[in-house]
Backbone:
């Protein structure tokens, strides 16, 4: 049986970049490591795909027990169809060196319908391209499909009682879009096979295609020749403008001469990099400190966003708070006290969360968050959910202060921030030696993924380790704010800067 050169994954990659297609096939060891966020997306897609099967129950998985045994999967699919199976999961087809797996294949009288399942909230061009290739291969292998549809998560669904799968999912026919692409698919397949059959890595300059429709996982290879502090790291600059400057010879941020067209943040970045000293606006810093009142409560809230609503009254991908960390400083110069909360997985965490949070933030004093958008929106949603707590939550909102504000207003900018005002970049720039690199959880997306996995974990020791990792991540988030505020205080006093 013929071997395959292309799959759905490699075809979509080839549409984005022929060089990436070649590297993916011949030099997979050069790929960048899969990020925890991307891995979480893969896992979510698998979970949603398995749930969607319940829309078409009683099917047989054509790939069960056949990991990477593609010939056998194709033969089993053919045998299942001939035996009269009405629903087949992961139906395998091969045509002209292209292998595809249809998520769900359903018999419709004398014909068949195929369904692709996605955990997204809407149909994208990538989904259409994916479906068009599957239709091309399935039709080419001898099975004329009656329809090809996409099953995706309904963004309007609100859980009420047990999951209602028919309302949780939307099914959209892509037949017309798919048919319109068939001639183009044939052409593209031949072009990509020619690329894969070549002996040399295709020449391909870096460009906007490196980011669309997905950030390429060969950027570490292709962007490696770029100098440190290249023009692509200049904040507020569109990629197209960055590429224009790069091609004109402006390769480094310090090469920039025309400052008038740059936004304030970009000008601050260029200035601090050229002078290699912090840019400090003491007046703006003083205005920020004047808005703070002791005791200071440094707060960070973490949320998770289950694709499939777990709790009554929630929607797909709704932010649900499950953790917070607080460092509290009673008076100037006092040592911070730490408080934290992580909801037990299982029941809706919001009631316990809000009650404990209100207890730990009672009294007066400023509540300081870094990019307070999440904290503010969390408090607002909890006000609607728990009317009895609305006055107290309104009070917490009025006490919120955003530690990102001085950096957004260019009251302080350090060259090591590289134009970013995210906490993950500001912390090591202002407090050398203090970073997230040594933690098991290094960002909010990873924390979200770990908490979701806690719902399925059974091993008590593993659960304890996961909770400890979440605790340490939250603790550093708020301790980082304490230390950053100290640096800003010293900047006002003129007591030196970070190195």
Residues:
């Amino acid at each position: 049986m013929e071997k395959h050169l292309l799959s759905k994954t490699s075809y979509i990659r080839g549409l984005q970049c022929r060089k990436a297609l070649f590297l993916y096939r011949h030099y997979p060891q050069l790929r960048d490591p899969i990020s925890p966020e991307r891995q979480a997306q893969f896992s979510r897609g698998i979970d949603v795909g398995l749930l969607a099967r319940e829309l078409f129950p009683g099917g047989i998985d054509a790939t069960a027990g056949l990991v990477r045994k593609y010939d056998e999967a194709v033969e089993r699919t053919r045998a299942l169809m001939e035996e009269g199976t009405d629903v087949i999961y992961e139906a395998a087809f091969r045509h002209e060196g292209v292998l595809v797996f249809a998520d769900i294949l359903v018999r419709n009288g004398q014909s068949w319908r195929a369904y692709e399942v996605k955990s997204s909230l809407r149909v994208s061009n990538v989904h259409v391209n994916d479906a068009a290739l599957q239709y091309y291969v399935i039709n080419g292998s001898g099975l004329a499909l009656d329809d090809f549809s996409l099953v995706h998560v309904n963004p309007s669904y609100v859980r009420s009682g047990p999951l209602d799968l028919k309302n949780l999912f939307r099914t959209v026919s892509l037949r017309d879009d798919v048919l319109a692409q068939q001639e183009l698919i044939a052409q593209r397949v031949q072009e990509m096979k020619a690329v894969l059959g070549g002996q040399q890595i295709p020449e391909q300059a870096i460009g906007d295609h490196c980011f669309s429709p997905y950030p390429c996982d060969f950027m570490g290879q292709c962007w490696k020749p770029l100098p440190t502090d290249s023009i692509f790291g200049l904040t507020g600059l569109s990629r197209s403008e960055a590429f224009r400057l790069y091609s004109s010879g402006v390769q480094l941020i310090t090469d920039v001469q025309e400052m008038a067209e740059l936004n304030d943040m970009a000008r601050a970045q260029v200035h601090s990099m050229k002078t290699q000293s912090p840019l400090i606006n003491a007046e703006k810093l003083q205005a920020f400190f004047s808005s703070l009142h002791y005791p200071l409560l440094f707060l960070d809230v973490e949320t998770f966003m289950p694709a499939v609503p777990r709790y009554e009254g929630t929607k797909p991908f709704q932010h649900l708070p499950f953790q917070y960390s607080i460092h509290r400083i009673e008076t100037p110069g006092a040592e911070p006290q730490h408080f934290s909360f992580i909801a037990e997985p299982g029941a809706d965490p919001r009631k316990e969360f809000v009650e404990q949070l209100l207890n730990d933030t009672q009294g007066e004093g400023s509540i300081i968050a870094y990019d307070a958008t999440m904290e503010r929106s969390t408090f607002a949603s909890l006000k609607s959910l728990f009317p009895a707590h609305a006055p107290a939550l309104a009070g917490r909102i009025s006490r919120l202060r955003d530690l990102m504000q001085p950096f957004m207003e260019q009251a302080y900018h350090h060259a090591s921030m590289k134009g970013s005002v995210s906490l993950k970049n500001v912390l090591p720039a202002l407090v050398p030696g203090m970073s997230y690199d040594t933690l098991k959880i290094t960002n909010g997306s990873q924390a979200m993924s770990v908490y979701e996995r806690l719902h399925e974990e059974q091993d008590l020791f593993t659960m304890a380790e996961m909770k400890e990792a979440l605790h340490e991540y939250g603790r550093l988030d708020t301790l980082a704010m304490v230390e950053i505020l100290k640096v800003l205080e010293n900047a006002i006093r003129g007591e030196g800067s970070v190195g």
Observations:
- Residues 283-493 form a domain with the Nucleotidyltransferase; domain 5 fold (CATH 3.30.420.10).
- The chain has a mean pLDDT of 93.
